[in-house]
Amino acid sequence: NPFFSVMKKVEIIFASALLLSLIFRVTAHKEVAIMFIISILALLILYTFLGFALFNGIRFRNIFISQSYTAIKPLFLIAGIVHGLTITLLLVSFLFRIQHWVYGTLMMTISSVILALFLIISFFKMQQGSTNPFYKESLTRSGYYLLVVAGNVAFL
User: Fold this and answer.
1) Fewest beta carbons less than 10 Å away: which of 19, 69, 70, 113?
2) What's residue 28's pLDDT?
3) Close Cβ partners of 86 (under 8 Å, ≥ 6 residues apart)
4) Contact (Cβ atoms closer than 8 angstroms) between residue 134 and residue 80
C-alpha cells in the first residue's frame, strides 16, 4: 500500500510536529521554536526534492526506476514539482513571518493563492470521478496547508 511508504510516514511525522509546534507557540510555549524549525526544514527538503514523487504516488525505492513513470503523464510530473515548490515557498514564508522579516506575508499570499488553485482543480476533478492519485494527494496536502496558513494568519 503506497500510503504507508517511507516518504509519507516522514511527511506525516514532520507535518504533525509542525502543527503541534504552532499550537504550542500560540499557547505561549516559546521553547518549541527548535521543533518548529526542524519540522519546517525537513518538510522543505522533502517537498523540494521529492514533491513530484509524493504527489504522483511514486514510492521512494522506485524513484530511480524508469518503469515507475510509464503510467504518469509528464503534465502530472510537472504539476507535482510546481506543487512541491509552492508548499516549499509557503513553509519559507512561515519562517519569515515568525521572524517578522520583510516579504513573509507576500510569500504566504502568493503560495496560498497557488495552493487554493490546486485545491479547487483537484476538488472538481475528484467530483468528476477522476481516479488519478495526483488529485487526491493534491487535495489532501493543499487543504492541510491552507488550514495551517489560516491558523498562522490568525495567531501570528
Assistant:
1) 70
2) 67
3) 111, 114, 115, 118
4) yes
